[in-house]
Amino acid sequence: MKKEDRAAWLAKFFDESGIALYGRASRISRDLGCAKAAATGWLNGTLPRDMELGMRFCEFYGIDLKEWVLGEKTKQVSLETERLHTALTLVREFEDETDVRWDIKDFIEQVEMVMDDPKYHQRHLRDVVDLQRRMKIREVIKKTNICGED
After folding, report:
1. Contact at 8 Å (CB) between 65 and 6?
2. Predicted local distance difference test score (pLDDT) of residue 74
3. Which of 33, 55, 64, 127 has its CA 20 to 30 Å from the CA of residue 70?
4. 78: Cβ–Cβ under 8 A, 6 or more apart, which residues?
């Protein structure tokens, strides 16, 4: 992105955020504790020399760093999406390991329960899988009479 384009992008961002044009550099300077000259430079399209300060600027105002620098939005995976992916994976793995096949309503209910408390349900579902394995082993032992019981 060219310097002029970056300045226009940042001006639009601050306009949409409701931060007045007049005194904008002073406000940024005050908010971040940086030199007013640095803030003025950013508003004019210059990228920061101090990237730590640039990152603080982005975090403070909710600016997408990649979009500010390159003009391309960062693909963001929300925390909720990650939680959903983890829950779906856990429930599907449980089904695969136990030969349980829930109907769609029950599957959704299991996913929702895992999303409410993923660590608890992960342990719980693992315990069920382990229990089922032990029960299968006992069944095999009983059928084959390995222990000599009648």
Report:
1. no
2. 78
3. 33
4. none
Quick one: pLDDT at residue 83?
A: 80
**94, 132 contact by CB (below 8 A):** no
At 46, the pLDDT band (50, 70, 90 cuts) reads very high
Nearest Cα neighbor of 94 from 115, 117, 123 is 123
What is the SS3 assignment for 80?
A: helix
| The pair of three-digit structure tokens given for residue 13, joined into one six-digit string | 């961002």
What DSSP string runs through 12-68? HHHHHTT--STTHHHHHHHHHT--HHHHHHHHTTPPPSSHHHHHHHHHHHT--HHHH
Looking at residue 25, its pLDDT comes to: 94
